[in-house]
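Homework help board

Subject: predicted structure for assignment chain

Our instructor gave us this sequence and asked us to write out the predicted structure in token form, then describe one feature. I got the tokens but I'm not sure how to describe them. Can anyone check?
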Amino acid sequence: MKTLNVGMLGCGFMGRTHSNAYNQVAHFFPDLPFKPVLKCCYGRPEDLETLKKFRQAWGYEEIETDWHKLIARSDIDIVDVVAPNFLHKEMVIEAANAGKMIICEKPFAMSVAEAEEMVEAVEKAGVANMVSFCYRRNPAVSLFKQVVDEGRIGRPFHYRALYLQDYTISQKVPAGGASLWRLDAKVAGSGVTGDLLAHSIDAAEWINGPIKRVCAKTEIFIKERKNAETGEMVPITIDDACMFLAVFENGSIGTFESSRYARGRKNFQTMELNGEKGAVYFNLEEPEYIQFFRYADPSGQKIEDHLTGWQKILVTNSEHPYMSHYWVPGTMIGYEHYFINQLADFLAGISGGPECHPDVHDALRVQKVCDAVIRSAKEEKWIEI
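My token output:
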């Protein structure tokens, strides 16, 4: 088994999820020809103590406080970018120029212009790559996609998605710093659009095809917050909430909504697709289920059955996506396993298996929709993608 040395650029929450996946993937996917080795992790000099604890917790061999040096190392095979958004462009381009395989967290970039530069560098280098839209690898979401691909809902009419949280409602929540950089436009780029709706957009286009045009409304509920590092009051320019209408290229229409001010919602994400022959629904708060409504079979024959209605399907059987690698039917997997599944797909792809998606091209596509949404909200008009 060939080893692949990992350089992790970041030691926060996403650094933990990705590190856990590297440690666990061979346990659940033992037939892969590659074994990841946690070689080196990067953190800022001012976060040195946090970096040392991160190394010890996850088993990295070394630490580095200069990410340029980490990328330049000849013993690093995969560069995994989990740093704040404003660093993605420079890190990805430098890693591509160094010939490293790249895994990058979402949102891929701060703008379409940045994403295009990054895609160009990755294409020129010809390096394997993946962007971490992890929810594709939830078995229930993968089954949702399978149901649609099998023609079980027929012609699609309506797609609707929600992604709601409530952690920034309080005026006392500061902006910036190590934990709340997502409230700083210079670091995050956008608010819920890039952070949350990017997931919803990726899933929607993966399942239902490209979005053709959008019309959006955003809102900033608290216009000023205390900066976490300086203590000064600073203006808030990222979107706290976003709603948009979408027209898909296949003729269906969609509604998308996201907010960090949805009191009572912690990480509430839903998607539903209604079609001529049926419908399918997923709720991340019940991540092991999909709901399926069957009106007609894939040939179009109407089902005459007095029990026709919504079915709640427990996605834990070995025939369901990814589940043959885990436990017996009826036992659950969770958030960490989405990252294990996506890493397994990436490693399979670089060893001759199916090409791994989402890649940088898919991420550029999501960025185009995000940018169009933000522009539509500013200009108060429909925007073509």
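Reply (TA_rk): Your tokens look well-formed. For the description, you could write something like this. The two ends are 44 Å apart (CA to CA). That's the kind of observation they're looking for.
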